[in-house]
Amino acid sequence: MTLQTSYKLSPATKSPREIDLLKEPILLRMGIDHDELPQGLSNAVKILGFDGVKDDAAMLSDASGQKFEVHEAPLCTLAILINPAHRGREKRLLDWLRDRGIADHPAIFEWHSGREIETTGLIIQKLSGLLVSDAKRIAQSNRELLALRTLNDNLQNRFATIESFVDRQGLQPFDLVFSNEPVSSSSRSNVLADASFEGVSQILPVASAGVSAIAIHFERLARRDDATLHAELVTLEDRQVVESWVVPLSKLGQGWNYLGLSRTLAGLRRTLNLQLHIEGMDDEMPLLSLGGLQPLEMFQVRDSANDTPLLKNSLAMQIWCGMPGVLLPSWANYLPAQSRQASDGGFREMPIAPGILDLAALANTEEISFEFAAILPLPEEKAIGCHPPATGITIGRLPAACPPRILRISSTAVIDNDASQDVDFALAIAGDLDSARQLFEEARVAGAGEAFSGWSSVAHGEEPRLNAFITEQVGVWQNIYFATRMKTPGDNSFAWAKFRDISLMVNG
Question: The organism sits in which domain of life (predicted)?
Fold first, then answer.
């Protein structure tokens, strides 16, 4: 029997009873009272009666005879037990299942008095077949995953070899992909002078992948040793600073000036926004060159403070792209970035991006269940909600969010309701849930590539900083796990526990 989810979800599938039918295998009985079935069979698997279809919903009944409606087909119907006298009634049920996307019909067994053991054996055989089929699929998936990991390792090794060769030979492809040439203007508008203290911003018309350098054009410069140009490249989607530059005006020249990134951008495609302002100059501002009239307001040069267009032009600029992820050769970094080079060989505190927080999910789903989300990403608060159970612990996970060379993970623990009892918080870095669980249960000490903060008891109004230090650095990305539990098991009402301002300290 092939298990298949329905082709759509009905708005009515919100009752806990109907949701439970999507979580466990069931038997359906037709024309058979629940008391006619062996007690052992009822204890082994959920058995529900089918009483027909009403208004496109199946009418089912539980062991006590209470009827209820379901709008979605159960995820796994082991078999249909039918009284031989009711043969033919199953067609309505099979049609209803087919209308909800169940391609393969469940097996139908007639229930005869005195042949209960034989029929139960057929049900067990069906269940055994499902288990064997699932085991084969899991084994095949593991083999495919191993093959993919091997291919990924080989690609990473080859990429590192290519990167090393390209960097040594200075062969980095460095192509001009966009150019907005400066145009002469009778008004000679000085956008740096007209903008607020925060300067100007310009959205780049190309996606982030492959961007290596950005050239800006100055029509006029005042060479001042005490003034500096501050530039930042920021992603609009998650407001992360990709790169930054601090350049004395004395090092800038009239014409094109190239802001080189320390590494060609790779990863998810993002929209880039270049922000520029001058510090230490109150009189005659440098004159940034403008391109032609820009009909799209989004790409007009804007004031960084209020994000409104200053003119109907965009900045004159060039955008250069290279091989994603590769270090730029020395000749490409005309005005090298400051943000990454300043941290080479040192420690760097790196906040987790709000977009990464959206990946937070409940890890121990088989142990914890609420009527609401136990793990709640709160990117606008730079936090993750982690509601503790009355007894036990809630474990959340950020998959592959901990990079290599990590030294420490930190987070502020808070409770956002003064009616809450005290809550225990903990952080861990581990490769899988079982390893993390052992750390949270304090069954062992952290191993290579792992970290554990220990448990900290927090009351409302307290905001301690949790720290988990890595024992030994490893060269792979790890999962971040976070957990909460009630200090005194029992009342978990109003326990609005949150991990806020999660950050990583990276070596280099």
Answer: Bacteria
Q: What's the whole-number mean pLDDT along residues 373-398?
A: 92
- pTM for this prediction: 0.40
CB atoms within 10 A of CB 19: 12
Mark whether 23 and 132 lie in a shared domain: yes
46 and 96 in a single domain? The answer is yes
> Which helix (H) or strand (E) is 129 found in, with range?
helix 116-169
- Tell me if 464 sits within 8 A of 410, measured CB to CB: no
Q: Cβ contacts of residue 52 below 8 Å, gap of 6+?
A: 58, 59, 92
Work out how many domains the chain is built from and give that number.
3
- Specify whether 122 is located in the same domain as 232: no
Q: Which amino acid is at 83?
A: N
Yes or no: say if 374 and 394 are a contact pair by the CB < 8 Å rule: yes
Rounded Cα distance between 449 and 287, Å, is 51
The residue from 110, 142, 169 where one domain ends is: 169
Where in the sequence is the domain holding 51, given as residue range(s)?
A: 1-169
Say whether both 452 and 339 belong to one domain: no
Mean pLDDT, the chain, rounded, equals: 82
Phi-psi category of 496—alpha, beta or left, where left has phi over 0 and alpha has psi -120 to 50? beta
